[in-house]
C-alpha cells in the first residue's frame, strides 16, 4: 500500500473509529465518577492529565466533558476547571446516566426511588392495559412470562425477561407518558429488577403473579390487573429489603457510623 493509499485508507477508517472511542471515553469518565473515584464536589484532573489517563486527544476529552455536563454530572467554569456535581443534580432519568451508575446503583439509594415511582405508575398502567392492550401485546407479555418461568436458576435470563415484561406492560397502557417513562427507566428498571431477583429466595411467587396479570389482561379485568401489579411491587419491595440487609451486613466496619468518643 503506497502513501496515498494509506492516507485514503486512514481517512475512510477514522470516522468509523472516532465515535466509538468518544463514547467509550465518556462512559469511562462517567463510570469513574459513579464509582466515586471523583467524589461529588471534587475537581476532575486537568485536561492534559485526562488525555494521558484515557489515552485520547484534548478534543475528545472536551467533547466528553460537554456530554457529561449536559447530563448534570459535571460543571465547567472558566479559569477554574471542571468539577463533579452533586448527585441530586444528575439527570437520573437519562438512560446513559442509569447505565453508567449500573453496578453502583444500589449505593445511590436509587432503587428505593425507582420502586416508589413504579408503585405510582405500574398499577395504573396495568389497569389501562386491561382495557387497551392489543392481542399482540398480550401475546408478548405471555411470551416474556414464559421466558421467566423457563429461566430456571439463571437470574440474568429471568431479569431480562422480567424487564421485557414490564416494558411491554407500560407500552400496553397506550399512555404516551408511561411509554416515554418506560424508555427513560429502562436501565434503572433493569438493575432494580436484578437486585430484587437475586435477593429473592424463590421466584415462584413472582412468576405466579406475572402469569395472573397476563390472564387479567386477557379477561379485560381492570381491577384484577391493578391488584396483580400491586402484588408484584409488594414482592419487589420485600426482596429489595432483603438485598439491602444483606448488603449492609457485608459492609466493612470502617463504613459504619462511629459513635462519638466520650468527653474527658
Query: What does the main sheet amount to?
Result: 2 strands, antiparallel
Mean pLDDT metric: 83
Q: What's the structural domain tally? A: 2
Low-confidence spans? 2-21, 256-264
Look up the CATH topology of the largest domain: Four Helix Bundle (Hemerythrin (Met), subunit A)
Write down the overall geometry.
Answer: elongated
As a percent range, the share of strand residues is under 5%
**Top CATH class of the largest domain:** Mainly Alpha
CATH superfamily of the largest domain: GntR ligand-binding domain-like
Count every beta strand, where a strand is a DSSP E run of 2 or more residues. 2
Give the % helix. Answer: 55-70%
| CA-atom Rg in angstroms | 23 Å
**H-E string:** HHHEEHHHHHHHH
Number of helices: 11
Global structural class: mainly alpha
Distance between the termini: 81 Å
Please state how the strands of the largest beta sheet are arranged side by side.
Answer: 1-2
CATH architecture label of the largest domain: Up-down Bundle
Description:
The longest helix is centred in the first third of the chain and has 32 residues. The radius of gyration is 23 Å and the shape is elongated. The protein contains 11 helices and 2 strands. The N terminus and C terminus are likely disordered. The chain has a two-stranded antiparallel ribbon. Strand 1 and strand 2 form a beta hairpin. It is mainly α and 264 residues long. Helix 5 runs antiparallel to helix 11. The chain folds into 2 domains: 65 residues, Arc Repressor Mutant, subunit A, CATH 1.10.10.10; 142 residues, GntR ligand-binding domain-like (Four Helix Bundle (Hemerythrin (Met), subunit A)).
Amino acid at each position: 500500500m503506497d502513501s496515498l493509499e494509506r492516507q485514503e485508507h486512514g481517512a475512510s477508517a477514522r470516522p468509523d473509529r472516532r465515535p466509538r472511542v468518544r463514547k467509550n471515553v465518556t462512559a469511562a469518565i462517567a463510570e469513574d465518577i459513579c464509582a466515586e473515584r471523583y467524589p461529588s464536589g471534587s475537581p476532575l484532573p486537568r485536561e492534559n492529565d485526562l488525555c494521558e489517563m484515557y489515552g485520547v486527544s484534548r478534543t475528545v476529552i472536551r467533547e466528553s466533558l460537554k456530554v457529561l455536563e449536559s447530563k448534570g454530572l459535571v460543571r465547567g467554569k472558566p479559569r477554574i476547571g471542571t468539577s463533579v456535581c452533586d448527585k441530586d443534580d444528575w439527570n437520573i432519568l437519562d438512560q446513559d446516566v442509569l447505565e453508567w451508575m449500573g453496578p453502583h446503583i444500589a449505593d445511590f439509594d436509587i432503587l428505593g426511588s425507582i420502586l416508589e415511582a413504579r408503585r405510582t405508575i405500574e398499577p395504573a398502567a396495568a389497569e389501562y392495559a386491561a382495557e387497551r392492550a392489543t392481542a399482540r401485546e398480550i401475546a408478548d407479555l405471555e411470551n416474556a412470562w414464559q421466558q421467566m418461568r423457563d429461566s430456571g436458576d439463571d437470574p440474568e435470563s429471568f431479569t431480562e425477561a422480567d424487564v421485557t415484561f414490564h416494558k411491554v406492560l407500560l407500552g400496553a397502557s397506550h399512555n404516551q407518558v408511561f411509554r416515554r417513562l418506560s424508555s427513560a427507566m429502562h436501565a434503572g428498571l433493569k438493575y432494580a429488577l436484578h437486585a430484587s431477583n437475586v435477593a429473592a429466595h424463590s421466584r415462584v411467587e413472582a412468576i405466579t403473579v406475572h402469569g395472573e396479570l397476563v390472564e387479567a389482561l386477557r379477561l379485560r379485568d381492570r381491577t384484577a390487573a391493578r391488584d396483580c401489579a400491586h402484588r408484584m411491587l409488594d414482592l419487589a419491595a420485600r426482596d429489595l429489603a432483603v438485598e439491602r440487609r444483606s448488603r449492609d451486613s457485608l459492609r466493612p466496619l470502617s463504613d459504619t457510623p462511629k459513635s462519638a468518643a466520650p468527653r474527658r
